[in-house]
Amino acid sequence: MAKVRVYNDNVFDHEEKFRGDIVKIPAKGFVEMEREDAVLFKSQFTSPKFGGDGVQEMESYKMIRLAPIENQAPDVPVNSDHICMVCGFEAKSKSGLLAHARAQHKEQMIDDEE
Ligand SMILES: [Zn+2]
Known about the structure:
This protein has helices at residues 35-43, 94-104; strands at residues 3-8, 14-18, 21-25, 30-34, 64-68. The strands form two sheets. The protein has a three-stranded antiparallel β-sheet. Strands 2-3 form a two-stranded antiparallel ribbon. The model has no long low-confidence stretch (mean pLDDT 85). By secondary structure, it is an alpha+beta fold. It has two domains: 3-68, no CATH class; 73-114, no CATH class. It starts with a strand and ends in a 10-residue tail after the last helix. It is elongated and about 65 Å long. It is built from two helices and five strands. The protein binds zinc ion (ZN). The site of zinc ion (ZN) has 7 residues, from helix 2.
């Protein structure tokens, strides 16, 4: 099953009970969940809290957004700073690696303008 990121767009931490557990998402942060769970979590109703002036407190706003996880990097131990992730070619420098990737793996390249 594919996981997605569940973002909390609020400036306050979000804490909510979900399936018997407390899910805590830091302010402007995210947690990762199975897509199915994430959709349920997002649509789950939370009771708003109101301050003394009758205005809903910012803390109780549920500002949840789902996003796909990009660049799911495989768990490959890296022995060198300049090893090609595609074919294992070992370059002597970062620029050498970039040159190799541009020449050999143009399609897989994600532009890295560093
Ligand atoms: Zn390569």
